[in-house]
Design goal:
By secondary structure, this protein is α+β, with helices and mostly antiparallel strands. The chain has 5 domains: 179 residues, 3-Layer(aba) Sandwich (Rossmann fold), CATH 3.40.50.300; 85 residues, Elongation Factor Tu (Ef-tu), domain 3 (Beta Barrel); 71 residues, Elongation Factor G (Translational Gtpase), domain 3 (Alpha-Beta Plaits), CATH 3.30.70.870; 107 residues, Alpha-Beta Plaits (2-Layer Sandwich); 113 residues, 2-Layer Sandwich (Alpha-Beta Plaits). The chain has 13 helices and 30 strands. The strands form 6 sheets. It has a 6-stranded mixed beta sheet, sandwiched between helices. A 6-stranded antiparallel β-barrel has the order 7-8-14-11-10-15. Strand 4, helix 4 and strand 5 form a beta-alpha-beta unit. Helix 7 packs across helix 8. The longest helix is centred in the last third of the chain and has 21 residues. The radius of gyration is 29 Å and the shape is globular. The protein starts with 5 loop residues before the first strand and ends with a helix.
Length: 597
């Protein structure tokens, strides 16, 4: 097919604005998937995606559409995630496209991620087609949506297409707009073959499969291809497109989006964002790849059974291949044994990775308390990057600790303004300015410490605003904070798995909470055991583990009281000796229960 009849586009939107449902209608309308096999959320192949009702991975699919101008067009579509933690997936999909459908929920209007994804598309010079979706909802407000489109996103209202992914209204208009408004593939006249690797996955039978967008030239089975960043050469075994299952083809031409199976078996040999070229006539310059993504949240992952270490290592390697935003390195802990320090883009990203390790790779894991990267300045004018509380230097050698902040845009109803402002204050945030979006909604722009929003911020925002609040954020500057390392001591010994870096004012409250929780979970011991929270040498909270007591006087029937007293004194002496030499073993499920919350 002529390259001028190919269109590459993706669907971008806020969470739950109907991207995947609209994709279903496009597959149905172009007869890419037969009606009898089409399921709801057809492109969400992962069990986790279906259960949570969210898209986690971008899903490419090739469709054929016969337009009103009489030509048959090849349309390559990518359905992308909407959650802020997966915005990296979106940026990777945008790099492989020339245009984007920007979905807006007719009932909810422009939300935080709508704005973020629209700006991402504009920055990559893509043609953006606005689509107002869910127009058949009783609460749809088209007038408000078109006004927000012009005021917030600066897109003329007449460009918007009215549609409903559920009932199929406006699908023909969307396909015609894709064909007419989105330009044909760019850079197709470059003299050598170049393809961008935007994703990859591991198949236990075929090895590593690379997902790529061919910009110029062609890739055939049997060709020798080369990765431009590493110089690695390998033979192509098979190429094909997604329909949406993998469908084998003779070649991938300029403008095509598809997969490449080669002789590569090691997950570390392929880098997402790399350029593929032919070994016999390589290209001289690479395609612009992706900016290096930096994880923002870190935690330790340890196998529940220590002999599952190698299995966990293999699982992390395969997930890393499929998710360039995830990083890991090995570490060990006195309490938990050997494991890995892992970095994620956010808390949902962390949750999904942990769930995928359990489900797809069948490894039970324990995770430590999430942390962020702190910049620690010492007396020797040295600046250390610390992502693990255990690595924090002694308090005496630290001059200043700087913590990462985020710049957040929070869209909320007017009625929740007071409660949301007090939540931001509680999390040590400051409000920069507020903007009125319409008669019922405002947007707060605020600066918040990243470690304060890690655990429960999003949940509390949703409950305060009854589900109508939404947040998008980007990493801000590092700012100095009065931060301290809080240790948990059990029987006087620190347990590194429970160490955390907290703000000095919040340490007593957090310490008390953790001690109470541990005192409930640790089973009764033979002697009195103290659980203490300490900052430096100061104990800031304490609880005792319940004590088991054997009734040593059970066999004494009546008689002289001194006999009973003698036995009790003997027991007391035994417990005192035991306390000096005894150790408390914390059951693994105690770690799980404490760290889960």
């Amino acid at each position: 097919m002529d390259v001028s009849l190919t269109r590459n586009f993706c669907i971008i939107a806020h969470v739950d604005h109907g991207k995947t449902t609209l994709s279903d209608r496009l597959l149905e309308h172009t007869r890419t998937v037969e009606q009898r096999v089409l399921t709801e959320q057809h492109l969400d192949a992962m069990d986790l995606e279906r259960e949570r009702g969210i898209t986690i991975k971008s899903h490419p699919v090739t469709m054929t559409y016969h337009a009103k101008d009489g030509h048959g067009y090849k349309l390559n579509l990518m359905d992308t995630p909407g959650h802020v933690d997966f915005s990296y997936e979106v940026s990777r999909s945008l790099a492989a496209c020339e245009g984007a459908l920007l979905l807006i929920d007719a009932a909810q209007g422009v939300e935080a991620q709508t704005v973020a994804n629209a700006h991402l598309a504009f920055s990559q010079d893509l043609k953006v087609i606005p689509v107002i979706n869910k127009i058949d909802l009783p609460s749809a407000n088209l007038e408000l949506c078109t006004q927000q489109l012009e005021d917030i996103l600066m897109i003329p209202a007449e460009e918007a297409i009215l549609a409903s992914g559920k009932s199929g209204v406006g699908i023909e208009d969307i396909l015609e707009a894709v064909v007419q408004r989105i330009p044909p593939p760019r850079w197709h006249d470059y003299p050598a073959t170049r393809a961008l690797v935007f994703d990859s996955l591991y198949d236990s039978y075929r090895g590593v499969i690379a997902y790529g967008r061919v910009f110029s030239g062609a890739l055939h089975a049997g060709d020798q291809m080369q990765f431009m960043s590493t110089g690695l050469k390998t033979e192509i075994k098979e190429v094909g497109v997604f329909t949406p299952k993998m469908s084998k083809q003779a070649a991938l031409q300029a403008g095509d989006v598809g997969y490449v199976v080669s002789t590569i078996k090691d997950t570390s040999d392929i880098n997402t964002g790399d350029t593929l070229t032919l070994a016999k006539s390589p290209a001289e310059e690479m395609l612009p790849g992706y900016k290096e993504v930096r994880p923002m949240v870190f935690c330790g992952l340890y196998p529940l059974e220590s002999n599952d270490y190698e299995k966990l290592k293999a699982a992390l390697g395969r997930l890393r291949l499929n998710d360039a935003a995830f990083v890991y390195q090995s570490e060990s802990s006195l309490a938990l044994g050997f494991g890995f320090r892992c970095g994620f883009l956010g808390l949902l990203h962390m949750e999904i990775i942990q769930e995928r390790i359990r489900r797809e790779h069948d490894v039970e894991i324990i995770s430590t308390y999430p942390s962020v990267i702190y910049h620690v300045h010492t007396h020797g004018q040295e600046m250390l990057e610390v992502d693990n509380p255990v690595l924090l230097p002694e308090p005496g050698s630290i001059t200043e600790i700087r913590e990462p902040t985020i710049k957040a845009s929070i869209h909320i109803p007017n009625t929740a303004m007071g409660d949301v402002m007090s939540l931001i204050m509680e999390k040590r945030g400051s409000i920069d300015h507020t903007d009125t979006l319409d008669a019922t909604r405002v947007m707060l722009t605020c600066i918040l410490p990243l470690n304060e929003i890690l655990v429960d911020f999003n949940d509390r925002l949703k409950s305060i605003t009854r589900g109508y609040g939404s947040m998008d954020y980007e990493l801000g500057d590092y700012q100095p904070g009065d931060l301290v390392k809080m240790d948990i001591l059990i029987n006087g010994e620190p347990v590194d798995a429970f160490s955390s870096i907290v703000h000095r004012d919040k340490a007593p409250g957090k310490g008390r909470e953790l001690c109470e929780k541990l005192a409930d979970i640790i089973p009764p011991q033979m002697f009195k055991v103290a659980i203490q929270a300490a900052v430096g040498g100061n104990i800031i909270a304490r609880e005792n583990v319940r004590v088991m007591r054997k009734d040593v006087t059970a066999k004494c029937y009546g008689g002289d009281i001194t006999r009973k007293r003698k036995l009790l004194e003997k027991q007391k002496e035994g417990k005192r000796k035991m306390k000096q030499i005894g150790r408390v073993s914390i059951p693994p499920d105690a770690f799980i229960q404490v760290l889960k919350n």
